[in-house]
Each structure stands twice: as structure tokens, then as C-alpha cells.
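User: Okay, second chain of the day. Same drill as before: sequence in, C-alpha cells out.
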Amino acid sequence: MKTKLLIAGLGASMTALLVAMPAGAQVGASGAAAAQASTMPVAASVSAFYDTHQAQSLWFQNGSAKPAVSQLIGVLQRAAFDGFAAGPQLAAQVQAAAAQAASKNPADISAAEKTLSSAWVQYVQAIRQPTAGMVYVFPVLQPQGTRADQILLTAAAAPSLEQHIASVSNVNSVYAQIRDAAWADAQSSGNLTPDPRLIANLDRLRSIPANGKFIVVDSGTQMLTMFENGRPYDSMKIVVGKPEYPTPMIASVMYYIVYNPYWNAPDHLVRKIAQNYLSMGDKYLKSRGYQVMKDWTASSGVVPSDQVDWKAVASGKVQIRIRQKPQDDNSMGELKFPFPNNLDIFLHDTPHKEYFAKANRNLSNGCVRLEDARRFGRWLLGTQPASPGTDAEIQVQLPRGVPVYLTYTTAQVQNGKIAYFSDPYHLDPAGGGAAKARGR
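Assistant: Same drill. C-alpha cells below.
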């Protein structure tokens, strides 16, 4: 019953998150989750689990090892390729404990049971660490279920322990494809030391869900993929941040789309606009639909251009907000796809379709431009996107919130092998392995 309650509680949290955006949502860690986290060593937590729940054996039946024991050993032997360096050592301990339990001595079986459960808990906790450097706007989007009792109760409730181990260790379909290709190559070559770049890439992928409908925005491959039931459904090219303005890693939820969006110019472009204004005057602003705004609030008023110290703006001594009205050359295009975050990052349409013919699409100031915004909108809405009117910034709610994960991968599987690509954001460890990184 406790297992069902734990799982149901998490499901209810995620469902509530997807149905409607919580008011005042902020980036940050969950205090409740932190309070729940066990501070006990793994061995003590596992012993407490068996004492408290009087659980039946997970790993042995009628004194004999279940098939899941051999499966666990294989998972741990491979675990260095999950970034869990202690895995092979734990695999040896599990093998020794299982061999001792073959004596059918109840004390040996009991000791082996706890050894195997401790190894499984340590492995699961390792692969469910939050991605380093990722901003989790909602704590529930972090990898969940890292307490020893959660891990073991869920395993005990699984209809098939073997299927459960496979599902948990695969993390998600993208992660499993890259990890398994690297492991297979290592076994065939005899080099069982994982490339540090592989570990870095898998860390950046571990937050992606295994199931459901969600979006993955990959600034490394410069592709957006739409997932349904945990599997790729559609994809498109994207333009992402330049190395000096990298697109950050964010986990959030998209709740609505915006028709006829304004475009707010970033500070470095505001200075260029000011320089052009000093040369051409008001006709430059009017021809491009630029407006000077009093502040950054949604209800901000427009400031007459003759009240602006344009020389100070051009030199960077004064900062102002300039927005562009919806029109054909608006940098947002027809559609914007915002999601809660404190970094002012969103997805959007673009009038510059020529960018998608380029091999290197690190061309934006951090936000993400879409190759086909209308196709993406149709997938989100379930119907062809059509603006309800001509007003600026018309918001239309999605039928259900859709999680969005902005990540960064430089490793892909090609012909069954791992290929490493260029690292414009310099997030990979230096020195890699034998595989040579190459351009896109």
C-alpha cells in the first residue's frame, strides 16, 4: 500500500503541474523534498526498510537466486558507463554474496538480500542525480525517487522485477541508446574505461522522462524533438544561442502560446538601434515598428523618442527597453512559445528561414528559433494554430501543460558507434577519449 501511495502522490503532483501553472512559481529546490531525503547511510536505510516493512525477499525465492540477480550484476558491471564508478566493485560484492547464499543458509540469504538491495539503491540514487547546471523551474521535474525505501518499495511492487530493473536502468530512450552503444563498443574493443565526454552527455540527458508527452530542445544537435509516450514523434531544426550567449539548460512546463508577439530587443542590439536613430531619426524607428517603453511591465506605456538620451543609450551609459510591434519582419515571427523561467528564454517563430539551411545554427542571443513554428503549434494544440485576432500578444492556453527540457548533447549514435561533435559551449571535459570530435 505504501508503494502505491508514493507513486500515486508523485503522479498527482505531476498531473497538477501539467493542468495549470502554479501561481508565483519560482526556480529553486523543494524544501519538502529535501526534508524527506534520508540522511542515513545506504546500508542502514536498507536494514531499516527490511525491519520496518518486513518485506519478502526481492532477490531470492525458496532459497534460490531469482533471474534478476544476474541482471543486477550485469547492470552494475556496466554502471561506470552511467557515471557510477563504484558499479563494477559492487557487482563483485553482489556475485560473492549470491554465491554465499547458494549454501541455502537463511543467515547467508538474509545477508545477501541486503547486499543486493544496497547495491541497487546506490545505483538508482546515482542515475537519478539532477543534471549539473540545469535550472529546474519546478522541483517535480527533477529525477524523482531517491530514498532507499522508495526505491525498494517500488521494486517490490513491480509485476516483473526483471522488467523493472531494465526500465529504471535505461532512464529514457535517448539515454539508453547512447549508453548502450558506448558499452557495446567498449566490450568489443576491450577498453572498459568510459570517455569522460560520454559521462557528461549522459548527465545532461538523465532528466528527460521515460514516458509521456514532452519536448526536448537540444542546443548541441540544434534540433527540437517532440516526444509522445516517451518516443520521438517529430523533430525540426532550431537556431540556438551563440557561444557568447549560450542557450541554458532548463526544465519547465509550457502552458500557452502567444500569437502576434512583440519582440524586445536585447541590450547590445538596443545600442545599435540607438546608433541608427542618431543617423536616421524617427523614420528609422517607425519603419521597423520600434517603440521605446517606460519599463518592463506588461502594462508599460510608450515613451516619446524625443525624451530619450540616444547618445547615452548608444554608448551603453543608459539602458532602455525597445520593443518591436508585430509585423512581417518582427524577430518573433507569428508565434511565441513561452514557459516559466527566470532567464527570459522561450521558443519562437522567425522570419529568417534561411538560417535553417546552415550547418551551424548557433546564431541567436539565447532564445530558440523554430524551423516550423506552425507545425510545432499544431502538435501542442491538437489543431491548426490560428490567431483569434490582430491584437498583439494574444495568449491561448494549451489543452494541457507540456514539459520542456532544454539540454545540450555532443554525442550521437551513428552506425552503432558513438560519434562526438563540436562543443561550442565548452561543457564537455577536455581531453576526451580515443574518438575524435568533429564538426557538424
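The chain has three domains: 2-170, 214-262+328-407, 263-324.

User: Thanks, on to the next one.
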